[in-house]
Amino acid sequence: MLTVVSPGGLCGLEFDRPERSVRLWTRLGRWMPGHEIEDLKRGTEADRVVELTASWLEIYFRTGRDPEQAVTLSLAGTPFEQEVWALLRTIAAGETRSYAWVARELRRPDAARAVGAAVGANPVSLLVPCHRVVGTNGSLTGYGGGMDRKQWLLRHEGAPGIAAELFLDRETM
Length: 173
What we know:
The chain is mostly helical. The chain is built from six helices and four strands. The protein has helices at 18-31, 45-63, 79-88, 99-105, 112-120, 147-157, and strands at residues 2-6, 9-14, 97-98, 133-134. The strands form two sheets. Strands 1-2 form a two-stranded antiparallel sheet. Strands 3-4 form a two-stranded parallel sheet. Helix 4 packs across helix 5 (112-120).
């Protein structure tokens, strides 16, 4: 996974897909102009954030649960995106919510499409669990990390109502 740390904390965590990495770098460049990419130096605060993130990911992938340890996030986005991302962080592992539910919780019931755009702009995969947002009817909708990965993550977490046939290998159909 591509891990990006700023002086404020973790600001990017993306699956290793070239198109997503380019999008993340473009977005971060827009929100944090003038910042330079540099190699991680051992013993620094940035190194500590990377170590905490790696530990968080190891626990998550081993257990399917959100670790209790906190990773400091430094999320660059619009005020609306920030609201959406904060709400996504309240959706527990193994649970799903719809875009419409997120919009209603934010007291903007007609903003499901805007919620979708904010979910899609999430710069920190997994720690801001955008994969837990589904269509109103429970259908699995797009995911920047890929639909196969979204299905795997939800299954790994034990999310109820995820149709088993979605996980069949296409070659077996």
